[in-house]
Protein backbone atom coordinates (compact mmCIF):
# COMPACT_ATOMS: atom_id res chain seq x y z
CA UNK A 1 0.00 0.00 0.00
CA UNK A 2 1.56 3.29 -1.08
CA UNK A 3 0.64 6.77 0.14
CA UNK A 4 -1.84 7.24 -2.68
CA UNK A 5 -3.78 4.12 -1.78
CA UNK A 6 -3.40 4.92 1.92
CA UNK A 7 -5.17 8.24 1.37
CA UNK A 8 -8.04 6.43 -0.30
CA UNK A 9 -8.19 3.60 2.23
CA UNK A 10 -7.74 6.00 5.12
CA UNK A 11 -10.74 8.01 3.93
CA UNK A 12 -12.72 4.79 3.63
CA UNK A 13 -11.69 3.73 7.14
CA UNK A 14 -12.74 7.05 8.66
CA UNK A 15 -16.08 6.65 6.90
CA UNK A 16 -16.40 3.10 8.19
CA UNK A 17 -15.65 4.20 11.77
CA UNK A 18 -18.17 7.04 11.57
CA UNK A 19 -20.87 4.75 10.19
CA UNK A 20 -20.08 2.16 12.87
CA UNK A 21 -20.48 4.64 15.73
CA UNK A 22 -23.56 6.28 14.22
CA UNK A 23 -25.39 2.97 13.68
CA UNK A 24 -24.39 1.16 16.87
CA UNK A 25 -28.00 1.07 18.08
CA UNK A 26 -28.83 -1.27 15.21
CA UNK A 27 -26.35 -3.86 16.46
CA UNK A 28 -26.74 -6.30 19.31
CA UNK A 29 -24.78 -5.08 22.36
CA UNK A 30 -23.01 -8.39 23.00
CA UNK A 31 -22.19 -11.09 20.45
CA UNK A 32 -24.09 -14.37 20.34
CA UNK A 33 -21.14 -16.60 19.57
CA UNK A 34 -19.46 -19.54 21.26
CA UNK A 35 -15.76 -19.78 22.18
CA UNK A 36 -13.71 -20.76 19.16
CA UNK A 37 -16.18 -19.35 16.62
CA UNK A 38 -13.51 -17.42 14.72
CA UNK A 39 -11.13 -20.35 14.41
CA UNK A 40 -13.62 -22.04 12.11
CA UNK A 41 -14.00 -18.94 9.93
CA UNK A 42 -10.35 -18.12 9.30
CA UNK A 43 -7.67 -20.27 7.68
CA UNK A 44 -5.16 -22.08 9.83
CA UNK A 45 -2.19 -20.31 8.23
CA UNK A 46 -1.39 -16.81 7.05
CA UNK A 47 -1.85 -16.22 3.31
CA UNK A 48 1.21 -16.71 1.15
CA UNK A 49 0.22 -13.96 -1.28
CA UNK A 50 -1.28 -10.48 -0.79
CA UNK A 51 -5.05 -10.24 -0.64
CA UNK A 52 -7.24 -7.38 -1.90
CA UNK A 53 -8.10 -4.70 0.65
CA UNK A 54 -11.77 -5.03 -0.24
CA UNK A 55 -11.73 -8.69 0.79
CA UNK A 56 -10.07 -7.83 4.10
CA UNK A 57 -12.76 -5.25 4.92
CA UNK A 58 -15.49 -7.71 3.90
CA UNK A 59 -14.09 -10.15 6.45
CA UNK A 60 -14.06 -7.42 9.11
CA UNK A 61 -17.82 -7.03 8.77
CA UNK A 62 -18.71 -10.68 8.21
CA UNK A 63 -16.27 -12.39 10.60
CA UNK A 64 -14.91 -9.90 13.14
CA UNK A 65 -17.91 -7.70 13.93
CA UNK A 66 -20.20 -10.65 14.84
CA UNK A 67 -17.80 -11.42 17.70
CA UNK A 68 -17.35 -7.85 19.00
CA UNK A 69 -18.79 -6.59 22.28
CA UNK A 70 -19.71 -3.00 21.52
CA UNK A 71 -18.42 -0.98 24.46
CA UNK A 72 -19.49 2.30 22.85
CA UNK A 73 -23.07 1.09 22.44
CA UNK A 74 -25.67 3.29 24.18
CA UNK A 75 -27.15 0.10 25.72
CA UNK A 76 -23.82 -1.00 27.19
CA UNK A 77 -23.96 -0.37 30.96
CA UNK A 78 -21.31 -2.77 32.24
CA UNK A 79 -18.03 -2.08 34.05
CA UNK A 80 -17.00 1.58 33.64
CA UNK A 81 -16.87 3.79 30.53
CA UNK A 82 -14.29 2.95 27.89
CA UNK A 83 -13.09 6.38 26.82
CA UNK A 84 -13.49 7.24 23.16
CA UNK A 85 -13.70 10.38 21.09
CA UNK A 86 -12.73 11.53 17.63
CA UNK A 87 -9.86 13.76 18.86
CA UNK A 88 -8.44 10.81 20.77
CA UNK A 89 -8.72 8.52 17.75
CA UNK A 90 -6.90 11.10 15.63
CA UNK A 91 -4.21 11.44 18.29
CA UNK A 92 -3.60 7.70 18.25
CA UNK A 93 -3.60 7.80 14.46
CA UNK A 94 -0.89 10.45 14.47
CA UNK A 95 1.10 8.58 17.13
CA UNK A 96 0.99 5.44 15.03
CA UNK A 97 2.01 7.44 11.98
CA UNK A 98 5.02 8.94 13.74
CA UNK A 99 5.89 5.53 15.15
CA UNK A 100 8.50 6.65 17.68
CA UNK A 101 9.59 4.57 20.68
CA UNK A 102 10.03 7.12 23.46
CA UNK A 103 11.87 5.20 26.16
CA UNK A 104 14.18 8.16 26.84
CA UNK A 105 14.43 11.87 26.18
CA UNK A 106 17.03 11.24 23.51
CA UNK A 107 14.85 8.62 21.81
CA UNK A 108 12.21 11.29 21.16
CA UNK A 109 12.40 14.57 23.08
CA UNK A 110 8.87 15.71 22.15
CA UNK A 111 7.41 12.37 23.22
CA UNK A 112 8.98 12.76 26.68
CA UNK A 113 8.39 16.47 27.23
CA UNK A 114 4.77 16.51 26.05
CA UNK A 115 4.00 13.70 28.50
CA UNK A 116 5.51 15.68 31.36
CA UNK A 117 3.58 18.84 30.46
CA UNK A 118 0.23 17.14 29.83
CA UNK A 119 0.48 15.23 33.13
CA UNK A 120 1.08 18.51 34.96
CA UNK A 121 -1.97 20.00 33.21
CA UNK A 122 -4.20 17.15 34.29
CA UNK A 123 -2.72 16.97 37.79
CA UNK A 124 -3.53 20.65 38.35
CA UNK A 125 -7.06 20.19 37.01
CA UNK A 126 -7.65 17.27 39.38
CA UNK A 127 -6.33 19.21 42.36
CA UNK A 128 -3.17 17.28 43.23
CA UNK A 129 -0.68 18.97 45.58
CA UNK A 130 2.24 20.80 43.98
CA UNK A 131 4.60 18.06 45.17
CA UNK A 132 3.11 15.77 42.51
CA UNK A 133 3.81 18.17 39.63
CA UNK A 134 7.10 17.81 37.78
CA UNK A 135 7.48 21.43 36.66
CA UNK A 136 6.72 23.12 39.98
CA UNK A 137 9.83 24.74 41.50
CA UNK A 138 11.30 22.56 44.21
CA UNK A 139 9.14 19.56 43.37
CA UNK A 140 10.66 16.09 43.24
CA UNK A 141 7.48 14.50 41.91
CA UNK A 142 5.90 14.12 38.52
CA UNK A 143 3.52 12.17 36.36
CA UNK A 144 3.79 9.34 33.85
CA UNK A 145 1.42 7.49 31.51
CA UNK A 146 1.18 3.76 32.19
CA UNK A 147 -0.72 1.05 30.38
CA UNK A 148 -3.35 0.50 33.08
CA UNK A 149 -4.13 1.01 36.76
CA UNK A 150 -2.82 -2.49 37.38
CA UNK A 151 0.62 -1.37 36.21
CA UNK A 152 0.39 1.75 38.36
CA UNK A 153 -0.27 -0.33 41.48
CA UNK A 154 2.49 -2.78 40.59
CA UNK A 155 5.24 -0.21 40.06
CA UNK A 156 4.35 1.69 43.23
CA UNK A 157 4.38 -1.55 45.24
CA UNK A 158 7.77 -2.42 43.75
CA UNK A 159 9.05 1.04 44.70
CA UNK A 160 7.68 0.68 48.24
CA UNK A 161 9.27 -2.75 48.54
CA UNK A 162 12.66 -1.46 47.42
CA UNK A 163 12.42 1.40 49.91
CA UNK A 164 11.47 -0.95 52.75
CA UNK A 165 14.27 -3.40 51.97
CA UNK A 166 16.78 -0.54 51.85
CA UNK A 167 15.76 0.70 55.30
CA UNK A 168 15.74 -2.81 56.79
CA UNK A 169 19.14 -3.57 55.26
CA UNK A 170 20.58 -0.55 57.02
CA UNK A 171 19.12 -1.76 60.30
CA UNK A 172 20.08 -5.41 59.78
CA UNK A 173 23.08 -5.47 57.41
CA UNK A 174 23.84 -9.16 57.95
CA UNK A 175 20.32 -10.46 57.29
CA UNK A 176 19.63 -11.81 53.83
CA UNK A 177 17.24 -9.80 51.68
CA UNK A 178 15.10 -12.89 51.10
CA UNK A 179 14.42 -13.15 54.81
CA UNK A 180 13.62 -9.45 55.05
CA UNK A 181 11.30 -9.77 52.04
CA UNK A 182 9.33 -12.52 53.79
CA UNK A 183 8.50 -10.07 56.60
CA UNK A 184 6.93 -7.39 54.42
CA UNK A 185 3.15 -6.91 54.63
CA UNK A 186 0.91 -4.88 52.32
CA UNK A 187 -2.71 -3.86 53.03
CA UNK A 188 -5.87 -3.12 51.09
CA UNK A 189 -9.62 -3.31 51.49
CA UNK A 190 -11.71 -6.25 50.39
CA UNK A 191 -13.30 -3.78 47.96
CA UNK A 192 -9.96 -2.92 46.34
CA UNK A 193 -9.34 -4.01 42.76
CA UNK A 194 -7.91 -7.49 42.23
CA UNK A 195 -4.80 -5.91 40.70
CA UNK A 196 -3.52 -5.23 44.24
CA UNK A 197 -3.52 -8.95 44.96
CA UNK A 198 -1.80 -9.67 41.66
CA UNK A 199 0.85 -7.03 42.38
CA UNK A 200 1.57 -8.66 45.74
CA UNK A 201 1.98 -12.02 44.01
CA UNK A 202 4.45 -10.58 41.53
CA UNK A 203 6.32 -8.71 44.27
CA UNK A 204 6.56 -11.81 46.52
CA UNK A 205 5.11 -9.97 49.51
CA UNK A 206 2.29 -10.77 51.88
CA UNK A 207 -1.03 -8.99 51.49
CA UNK A 208 -3.64 -8.56 54.20
CA UNK A 209 -7.13 -7.85 52.88
CA UNK A 210 -9.21 -5.89 55.37
CA UNK A 211 -12.95 -5.67 55.94
CA UNK A 212 -14.55 -2.32 55.07
CA UNK A 213 -17.45 -0.75 56.95
CA UNK A 214 -21.12 -0.99 55.98
CA UNK A 215 -20.56 1.62 53.25
CA UNK A 216 -17.72 -0.46 51.77
CA UNK A 217 -15.18 2.10 53.01
CA UNK A 218 -11.88 1.15 54.61
CA UNK A 219 -11.50 2.88 57.97
CA UNK A 220 -8.38 3.91 59.87
CA UNK A 221 -9.19 1.90 63.01
CA UNK A 222 -9.36 -1.33 61.02
CA UNK A 223 -6.07 -0.60 59.28
CA UNK A 224 -4.27 0.52 62.44
CA UNK A 225 -5.37 -2.55 64.39
CA UNK A 226 -4.21 -4.89 61.62
CA UNK A 227 -0.82 -3.19 61.32
CA UNK A 228 -0.24 -3.27 65.08
CA UNK A 229 -1.17 -6.95 65.21
CA UNK A 230 1.27 -7.71 62.39
CA UNK A 231 4.07 -5.80 64.07
CA UNK A 232 3.55 -7.88 67.19
CA UNK A 233 3.94 -10.96 65.00
CA UNK A 234 7.27 -9.69 63.70
CA UNK A 235 5.94 -8.54 60.31
CA UNK A 236 6.75 -5.19 58.74
CA UNK A 237 3.98 -3.02 57.19
CA UNK A 238 5.32 -1.29 54.08
CA UNK A 239 2.46 -0.52 51.63
CA UNK A 240 -1.20 0.51 51.83
CA UNK A 241 -3.41 0.74 48.75
CA UNK A 242 -6.56 2.81 49.21
CA UNK A 243 -9.35 3.23 46.69
CA UNK A 244 -11.42 6.26 45.73
CA UNK A 245 -14.30 4.83 43.72
CA UNK A 246 -14.18 1.05 44.10
CA UNK A 247 -14.98 -1.16 41.14
CA UNK A 248 -17.84 -2.96 42.86
CA UNK A 249 -19.88 -0.04 44.17
CA UNK A 250 -17.86 3.17 43.65
CA UNK A 251 -17.21 3.42 47.40
CA UNK A 252 -14.55 5.70 48.87
CA UNK A 253 -12.03 4.72 51.50
CA UNK A 254 -11.59 7.33 54.24
CA UNK A 255 -8.34 8.70 52.87
CA UNK A 256 -7.98 11.58 55.32
CA UNK A 257 -8.53 9.33 58.32
CA UNK A 258 -6.15 6.65 56.99
CA UNK A 259 -3.48 9.20 56.07
CA UNK A 260 -3.57 10.65 59.56
CA UNK A 261 -3.27 7.19 61.12
CA UNK A 262 -0.26 6.33 58.94
CA UNK A 263 1.75 9.20 60.40
CA UNK A 264 2.66 6.66 63.06
CA UNK A 265 4.21 4.51 60.33
CA UNK A 266 6.46 6.94 58.39
CA UNK A 267 8.08 4.28 56.22
CA UNK A 268 4.76 2.97 54.84
CA UNK A 269 3.93 3.94 51.24
CA UNK A 270 0.35 5.19 50.81
CA UNK A 271 -1.06 4.71 47.31
CA UNK A 272 -4.42 6.03 46.07
CA UNK A 273 -6.16 4.16 43.26
CA UNK A 274 -8.82 6.37 41.67
CA UNK A 275 -8.95 4.75 38.24
CA UNK A 276 -12.57 5.78 37.56
CA UNK A 277 -13.48 8.44 40.10
CA UNK A 278 -10.23 10.40 39.82
CA UNK A 279 -11.30 11.87 36.50
CA UNK A 280 -14.34 13.49 38.12
CA UNK A 281 -12.16 15.53 40.47
CA UNK A 282 -11.73 18.07 37.69
CA UNK A 283 -15.21 19.24 38.75
CA UNK A 284 -14.93 21.70 41.67
CA UNK A 285 -18.03 20.31 43.38
CA UNK A 286 -16.44 16.84 43.54
CA UNK A 287 -13.02 17.76 44.88
CA UNK A 288 -14.20 17.03 48.43
CA UNK A 289 -13.88 13.35 47.50
CA UNK A 290 -10.12 13.90 47.23
CA UNK A 291 -9.79 14.95 50.87
CA UNK A 292 -6.62 13.52 52.40
CA UNK A 293 -4.58 13.40 49.19
CA UNK A 294 -1.85 15.41 50.91
CA UNK A 295 -0.91 12.22 52.82
CA UNK A 296 -0.46 10.11 49.67
CA UNK A 297 2.82 9.03 48.12
CA UNK A 298 1.25 8.18 44.75
CA UNK A 299 -2.04 8.63 42.90
CA UNK A 300 -3.43 7.15 39.69
CA UNK A 301 -6.47 7.66 37.52
CA UNK A 302 -7.48 6.48 34.04
CA UNK A 303 -8.39 9.09 31.42
CA UNK A 304 -9.20 6.08 29.21
CA UNK A 305 -12.20 5.49 31.48
CA UNK A 306 -13.91 8.82 31.97
CA UNK A 307 -12.01 11.51 30.07
CA UNK A 308 -12.87 10.55 26.49
CA UNK A 309 -9.39 9.18 25.82
CA UNK A 310 -8.88 5.83 24.15
CA UNK A 311 -7.13 2.95 25.86
CA UNK A 312 -4.33 2.76 26.85
CA UNK A 313 -3.86 5.83 29.00
CA UNK A 314 -3.49 5.39 32.76
CA UNK A 315 -1.88 8.33 34.53
CA UNK A 316 0.28 7.99 37.65
CA UNK A 317 1.75 10.72 39.83
CA UNK A 318 4.34 10.26 42.60
CA UNK A 319 5.48 12.62 45.31
CA UNK A 320 9.12 11.59 44.96
CA UNK A 321 10.17 10.25 41.57
CA UNK A 322 13.60 9.20 42.85
CA UNK A 323 11.97 6.67 45.18
CA UNK A 324 10.10 5.29 42.17
CA UNK A 325 12.92 5.17 39.65
CA UNK A 326 15.51 3.78 42.07
CA UNK A 327 13.49 0.56 42.21
CA UNK A 328 13.34 0.21 38.42
CA UNK A 329 16.57 1.61 37.03
CA UNK A 330 18.48 -0.58 34.61
CA UNK A 331 21.02 1.53 32.73
CA UNK A 332 23.03 -0.29 30.08
CA UNK A 333 25.49 1.68 28.01
CA UNK A 334 23.46 1.51 24.81
CA UNK A 335 20.58 3.40 26.50
CA UNK A 336 22.64 6.19 28.01
CA UNK A 337 22.78 9.68 26.51
CA UNK A 338 24.35 13.03 27.25
CA UNK A 339 21.27 14.52 28.93
CA UNK A 340 20.51 11.70 31.35
CA UNK A 341 21.22 13.90 34.38
CA UNK A 342 19.01 16.80 33.31
CA UNK A 343 16.09 15.12 31.49
CA UNK A 344 13.44 12.59 32.41
CA UNK A 345 13.80 9.10 30.97
CA UNK A 346 10.43 7.40 31.33
CA UNK A 347 11.95 3.96 30.84
CA UNK A 348 12.83 4.15 34.56
CA UNK A 349 9.22 4.85 35.57
CA UNK A 350 7.67 1.51 34.65
CA UNK A 351 8.16 -2.09 33.64
CA UNK A 352 8.38 -1.86 29.81
CA UNK A 353 11.24 -0.22 28.01
CA UNK A 354 9.39 0.68 24.80
CA UNK A 355 6.77 3.39 25.07
CA UNK A 356 4.25 4.78 22.58
CA UNK A 357 3.56 8.46 22.04
CA UNK A 358 0.41 8.25 24.19
CA UNK A 359 0.50 11.84 25.39
CA UNK A 360 -0.59 13.03 21.92
CA UNK A 361 -4.15 11.74 22.25
CA UNK A 362 -4.53 13.13 25.78
CA UNK A 363 -3.21 16.45 24.57
CA UNK A 364 -5.70 16.41 21.67
CA UNK A 365 -8.59 15.69 24.05
CA UNK A 366 -7.67 18.35 26.62
CA UNK A 367 -7.34 20.97 23.92
CA UNK A 368 -10.40 19.92 21.89
CA UNK A 369 -12.84 19.81 24.79
CA UNK A 370 -11.15 22.05 27.33
CA UNK A 371 -11.61 21.46 31.06
CA UNK A 372 -15.10 22.96 30.85
CA UNK A 373 -16.22 20.54 28.15
CA UNK A 374 -14.88 17.56 30.08
CA UNK A 375 -16.61 18.79 33.25
CA UNK A 376 -19.93 19.00 31.40
CA UNK A 377 -19.46 15.48 30.05
CA UNK A 378 -18.86 14.07 33.55
CA UNK A 379 -21.77 16.00 35.06
CA UNK A 380 -24.07 14.69 32.33
CA UNK A 381 -23.18 11.09 33.17
CA UNK A 382 -23.77 11.76 36.87
CA UNK A 383 -27.18 13.25 36.07
CA UNK A 384 -28.07 10.12 34.09
CA UNK A 385 -27.04 7.92 37.01
CA UNK A 386 -29.17 10.00 39.37
CA UNK A 387 -32.13 9.60 37.03
CA UNK A 388 -31.69 5.85 37.04
CA UNK A 389 -31.43 5.87 40.82
CA UNK A 390 -34.76 7.73 41.06
CA UNK A 391 -36.40 5.16 38.78
CA UNK A 392 -35.18 2.33 40.99
CA UNK A 393 -36.33 4.03 44.18
CA UNK A 394 -39.82 4.59 42.75
CA UNK A 395 -40.33 0.86 42.20
CA UNK A 396 -41.04 -0.94 45.48
CA UNK A 397 -39.78 -4.22 44.01
CA UNK A 398 -36.20 -2.90 43.80
CA UNK A 399 -33.63 -1.36 46.11
CA UNK A 400 -30.50 0.74 45.61
CA UNK A 401 -27.46 -0.85 47.25
CA UNK A 402 -24.80 1.89 47.11
CA UNK A 403 -24.42 5.57 47.75
CA UNK A 404 -24.68 7.09 44.29
CA UNK A 405 -22.06 9.82 44.15
CA UNK A 406 -20.87 9.51 40.55
CA UNK A 407 -22.06 7.52 37.53
CA UNK A 408 -22.56 4.03 39.02
CA UNK A 409 -25.77 2.65 40.50
CA UNK A 410 -25.89 -0.73 42.25
CA UNK A 411 -29.39 -2.16 42.57
CA UNK A 412 -31.24 -5.44 43.00
CA UNK A 413 -34.65 -6.98 43.23
CA UNK A 414 -35.80 -7.37 46.80
CA UNK A 415 -35.45 -11.07 47.43
CA UNK A 416 -32.85 -13.76 47.07
CA UNK A 417 -29.52 -13.63 45.27
CA UNK A 418 -30.79 -16.42 43.03
CA UNK A 419 -33.61 -14.36 41.58
CA UNK A 420 -31.21 -11.44 40.90
CA UNK A 421 -28.77 -13.77 39.18
CA UNK A 422 -31.63 -15.03 37.07
CA UNK A 423 -32.74 -11.49 36.23
CA UNK A 424 -29.29 -10.40 35.07
CA UNK A 425 -28.74 -13.61 33.13
CA UNK A 426 -32.00 -13.19 31.23
CA UNK A 427 -31.35 -9.51 30.47
CA UNK A 428 -27.84 -10.14 29.17
CA UNK A 429 -28.94 -13.16 27.15
CA UNK A 430 -31.49 -11.00 25.36
CA UNK A 431 -28.76 -8.71 24.00
CA UNK A 432 -30.95 -5.64 24.60
CA UNK A 433 -28.69 -4.15 27.28
CA UNK A 434 -25.61 -5.39 29.06
CA UNK A 435 -24.71 -5.15 32.76
CA UNK A 436 -22.45 -7.03 35.17
CA UNK A 437 -22.86 -8.08 38.81
CA UNK A 438 -20.92 -7.29 41.97
CA UNK A 439 -20.99 -8.27 45.63
CA UNK A 440 -21.86 -5.49 48.06
CA UNK A 441 -22.04 -6.38 51.75
CA UNK A 442 -22.12 -10.06 50.80
CA UNK A 443 -25.17 -9.54 48.58
CA UNK A 444 -25.45 -10.07 44.84
CA UNK A 445 -26.14 -6.72 43.13
CA UNK A 446 -26.42 -5.53 39.55
CA UNK A 447 -24.20 -2.65 38.42
CA UNK A 448 -25.58 0.00 36.09
CA UNK A 449 -23.26 2.62 34.65
CA UNK A 450 -23.79 5.24 31.98
CA UNK A 451 -20.87 4.63 29.63
CA UNK A 452 -21.56 5.97 26.12
CA UNK A 453 -20.16 9.39 25.31
CA UNK A 454 -23.48 10.65 23.94
CA UNK A 455 -25.76 8.70 26.30
CA UNK A 456 -29.23 10.23 26.63
CA UNK A 457 -32.18 10.21 29.00
CA UNK A 458 -33.96 7.98 26.48
CA UNK A 459 -31.18 5.41 26.83
CA UNK A 460 -31.68 5.32 30.59
CA UNK A 461 -35.46 5.02 30.29
CA UNK A 462 -35.11 2.27 27.71
CA UNK A 463 -32.77 0.34 29.98
CA UNK A 464 -35.18 0.64 32.90
CA UNK A 465 -38.08 -0.55 30.75
CA UNK A 466 -36.07 -3.63 29.75
CA UNK A 467 -35.14 -4.32 33.38
CA UNK A 468 -38.68 -3.98 34.69
CA UNK A 469 -40.15 -6.10 31.89
CA UNK A 470 -37.80 -8.96 32.66
CA UNK A 471 -38.31 -8.48 36.39
CA UNK A 472 -42.09 -8.78 36.06
CA UNK A 473 -41.76 -11.93 33.99
CA UNK A 474 -39.27 -13.52 36.39
CA UNK A 475 -41.27 -12.61 39.50
CA UNK A 476 -44.41 -14.08 37.97
CA UNK A 477 -42.61 -17.28 37.04
CA UNK A 478 -40.95 -17.40 40.45
CA UNK A 479 -44.34 -17.19 42.17
CA UNK A 480 -45.64 -19.99 39.94
CA UNK A 481 -42.56 -22.03 40.81
CA UNK A 482 -43.22 -21.43 44.49
CA UNK A 483 -46.81 -22.67 44.12
CA UNK A 484 -45.57 -25.74 42.25
CA UNK A 485 -43.01 -26.34 44.96
CA UNK A 486 -45.68 -26.13 47.65
CA UNK A 487 -47.89 -28.57 45.76
CA UNK A 488 -44.96 -30.94 45.29
CA UNK A 489 -44.18 -30.75 48.98
CA UNK A 490 -47.76 -31.56 49.83
CA UNK A 491 -47.73 -34.49 47.43
CA UNK A 492 -44.53 -35.74 49.00
CA UNK A 493 -46.03 -35.32 52.46
CA UNK A 494 -49.18 -37.19 51.41
CA UNK A 495 -47.10 -39.98 49.91
CA UNK A 496 -45.13 -40.20 53.12
CA UNK A 497 -48.40 -40.51 55.07
CA UNK A 498 -49.53 -43.31 52.78
CA UNK A 499 -46.26 -45.14 53.14
CA UNK A 500 -46.42 -44.67 56.90
CA UNK A 501 -49.92 -46.20 56.97
CA UNK A 502 -48.77 -49.10 54.80
CA UNK A 503 -46.03 -49.88 57.32
CA UNK A 504 -48.55 -49.80 60.16
CA UNK A 505 -51.00 -51.85 58.15
CA UNK A 506 -48.60 -54.74 57.64
CA UNK A 507 -47.15 -54.62 61.16
CA UNK A 508 -50.07 -53.90 63.54
CA UNK A 509 -51.75 -57.16 64.70
CA UNK A 510 -55.05 -55.33 65.13
CA UNK A 511 -55.18 -54.80 61.41
CA UNK A 512 -55.04 -58.48 60.50
CA UNK A 513 -56.91 -60.00 63.41
CA UNK A 514 -60.66 -60.06 62.63
CA UNK A 515 -61.49 -60.96 66.21
CA UNK A 516 -59.93 -57.76 67.47
CA UNK A 517 -61.71 -55.77 64.82
CA UNK A 518 -65.06 -57.38 65.65
CA UNK A 519 -64.62 -56.50 69.29
CA UNK A 520 -63.88 -52.84 68.45
CA UNK A 521 -66.77 -51.76 66.29
CA UNK A 522 -66.15 -48.22 65.11
CA UNK A 523 -68.60 -45.39 65.25
CA UNK A 524 -70.70 -44.78 62.19
CA UNK A 525 -69.56 -41.75 60.24
CA UNK A 526 -72.03 -39.21 58.94
CA UNK A 527 -71.96 -37.99 55.38
CA UNK A 528 -71.31 -41.43 53.85
CA UNK A 529 -72.44 -42.27 50.34
CA UNK A 530 -74.34 -45.57 49.91
CA UNK A 531 -75.16 -47.52 46.80
CA UNK A 532 -77.43 -50.63 47.17
CA UNK A 533 -76.78 -53.50 44.82
CA UNK A 534 -79.24 -56.08 43.56
CA UNK A 535 -77.87 -58.76 45.85
CA UNK A 536 -78.84 -56.77 48.92
CA UNK A 537 -75.36 -55.70 49.92
CA UNK A 538 -74.94 -51.97 50.44
CA UNK A 539 -71.61 -50.49 49.32
CA UNK A 540 -70.79 -47.32 51.20
CA UNK A 541 -67.96 -45.01 50.14
CA UNK A 542 -66.65 -42.83 52.95
CA UNK A 543 -63.87 -40.21 52.99
CA UNK A 544 -60.96 -40.96 55.31
CA UNK A 545 -60.84 -37.38 56.62
CA UNK A 546 -62.05 -38.35 60.09
CA UNK A 547 -59.25 -40.31 61.73
CA UNK A 548 -59.99 -42.87 64.37
CA UNK A 549 -63.44 -43.69 63.01
CA UNK A 550 -62.73 -46.97 61.30
CA UNK A 551 -60.85 -50.22 61.67
CA UNK A 552 -58.19 -50.73 59.05
CA UNK A 553 -57.70 -54.19 57.58
CA UNK A 554 -56.24 -55.45 54.37
CA UNK A 555 -58.75 -56.10 51.61
CA UNK A 556 -58.40 -59.93 51.35
CA UNK A 557 -59.28 -60.33 55.03
CA UNK A 558 -62.01 -57.73 54.64
CA UNK A 559 -63.80 -59.76 52.02
CA UNK A 560 -63.38 -63.01 53.90
CA UNK A 561 -64.72 -61.35 57.00
CA UNK A 562 -67.60 -59.60 55.23
CA UNK A 563 -68.64 -62.69 53.26
CA UNK A 564 -68.36 -65.30 55.98
CA UNK A 565 -71.10 -67.90 56.37
CA UNK A 566 -72.78 -65.94 59.13
CA UNK A 567 -72.65 -62.74 57.09
CA UNK A 568 -71.37 -59.44 58.42
CA UNK A 569 -71.99 -59.00 62.11
CA UNK A 570 -71.61 -55.25 62.15
CA UNK A 571 -71.19 -52.22 59.93
CA UNK A 572 -67.41 -52.17 59.62
CA UNK A 573 -65.69 -49.63 57.36
CA UNK A 574 -62.94 -51.35 55.43
CA UNK A 575 -59.70 -49.75 54.21
CA UNK A 576 -58.24 -50.82 50.87
CA UNK A 577 -54.52 -50.25 51.36
CA UNK A 578 -53.99 -48.94 47.83
CA UNK A 579 -56.92 -46.46 47.96
CA UNK A 580 -57.76 -43.12 49.54
CA UNK A 581 -61.26 -44.29 50.52
CA UNK A 582 -62.91 -46.64 52.97
CA UNK A 583 -65.68 -49.04 52.01
CA UNK A 584 -68.42 -50.03 54.46
CA UNK A 585 -70.16 -53.35 53.89
CA UNK A 586 -73.56 -53.82 55.55
CA UNK A 587 -76.63 -55.99 54.95
CA UNK A 588 -79.83 -54.17 54.00
CA UNK A 589 -83.16 -54.78 55.67
CA UNK A 590 -84.63 -55.84 52.35
CA UNK A 591 -81.95 -58.51 52.01
CA UNK A 592 -82.57 -59.86 55.52
CA UNK A 593 -86.29 -60.15 54.92
CA UNK A 594 -86.58 -61.46 51.43
CA UNK A 595 -83.15 -62.83 50.57
CA UNK A 596 -80.73 -61.49 47.95
CA UNK A 597 -81.77 -61.06 44.35
CA UNK A 598 -79.71 -62.07 41.37
CA UNK A 599 -77.18 -59.63 39.98
CA UNK A 600 -78.13 -57.94 36.70
CA UNK A 601 -74.73 -59.03 35.38
CA UNK A 602 -75.16 -62.66 36.20
CA UNK A 603 -73.95 -64.81 38.98
CA UNK A 604 -70.53 -63.21 39.09
CA UNK A 605 -71.77 -59.63 38.60
CA UNK A 606 -69.57 -56.56 39.12
CA UNK A 607 -70.30 -53.73 41.54
CA UNK A 608 -68.27 -50.55 40.85
CA UNK A 609 -67.21 -48.25 43.70
CA UNK A 610 -65.36 -45.07 42.67
CA UNK A 611 -62.70 -43.48 44.81
CA UNK A 612 -62.68 -39.68 44.76
CA UNK A 613 -58.89 -39.64 44.28
CA UNK A 614 -58.15 -42.91 42.48
CA UNK A 615 -59.25 -44.79 39.43
CA UNK A 616 -62.46 -46.84 39.63
CA UNK A 617 -62.37 -50.08 41.61
CA UNK A 618 -64.01 -53.18 40.29
CA UNK A 619 -65.17 -55.66 42.88
CA UNK A 620 -66.46 -59.07 41.81
CA UNK A 621 -69.16 -60.57 44.03
CA UNK A 622 -71.00 -63.89 43.79
CA UNK A 623 -74.75 -63.36 44.05
CA UNK A 624 -76.77 -65.47 46.51
CA UNK A 625 -79.73 -67.26 44.87
CA UNK A 626 -82.75 -68.31 46.94
CA UNK A 627 -81.95 -71.91 46.18
CA UNK A 628 -78.26 -72.12 46.83
CA UNK A 629 -77.49 -69.54 49.55
CA UNK A 630 -73.78 -70.30 49.10
CA UNK A 631 -70.99 -68.19 50.58
CA UNK A 632 -69.35 -65.59 48.31
CA UNK A 633 -65.79 -64.48 47.74
CA UNK A 634 -64.33 -61.67 45.67
CA UNK A 635 -61.24 -60.34 44.03
CA UNK A 636 -60.31 -57.06 42.32
CA UNK A 637 -59.29 -56.60 38.74
TrEMBL record:
Pfam families: Pyridoxal_deC
CDD domains hit by this protein: DOPA_deC_like (cd06450)
GO MF terms, alphabetically ordered: carboxy-lyase activity; pyridoxal phosphate binding
Any one GO cellular component localisation term in the record: cytoplasm
Domain of life: Eukaryota
Region named Disordered: 588-637
Modified positions (N6-(pyridoxal phosphate)lysine) in chain numbering: 305
Cofactors, names only: pyridoxal 5'-phosphate
GO biological process: amino acid metabolic process; carboxylic acid metabolic process
InterPro entries registered for this protein in UniProt: Aromatic_deC, PyrdxlP-dep_de-COase, PyrdxlP-dep_Trfase, PyrdxlP-dep_Trfase_major, PyrdxlP-dep_Trfase_small, Pyridoxal-P_BS
Signal peptide region: none
Keywords tagged on the record: Decarboxylase, Lyase, Pyridoxal phosphate
Protein family per UniProt: Belongs to the group II decarboxylase family.
Protein name per UniProt: Aromatic amino acid decarboxylase
Amino acid sequence: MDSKEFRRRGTEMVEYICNYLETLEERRVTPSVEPGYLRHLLPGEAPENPEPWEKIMQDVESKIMPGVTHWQHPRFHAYFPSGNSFPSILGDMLSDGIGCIGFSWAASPACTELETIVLDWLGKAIGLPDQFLALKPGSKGGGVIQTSASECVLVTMLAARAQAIKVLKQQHPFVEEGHLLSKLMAYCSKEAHSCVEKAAMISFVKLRILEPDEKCSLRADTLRKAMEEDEQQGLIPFFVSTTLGTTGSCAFDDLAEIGEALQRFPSVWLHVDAAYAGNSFICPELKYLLKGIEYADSFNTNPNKWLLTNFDCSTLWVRDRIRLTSALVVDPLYLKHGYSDSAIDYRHWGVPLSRRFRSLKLWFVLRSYGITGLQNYIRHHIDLAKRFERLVLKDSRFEVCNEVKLGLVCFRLKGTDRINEKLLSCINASGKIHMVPASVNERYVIRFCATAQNATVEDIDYAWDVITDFAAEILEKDQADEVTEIVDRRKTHTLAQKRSFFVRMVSDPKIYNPAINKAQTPLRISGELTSPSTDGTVVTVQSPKTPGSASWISWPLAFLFANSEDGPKNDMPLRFRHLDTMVRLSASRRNSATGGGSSPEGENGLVLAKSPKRSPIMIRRRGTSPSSGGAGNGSDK
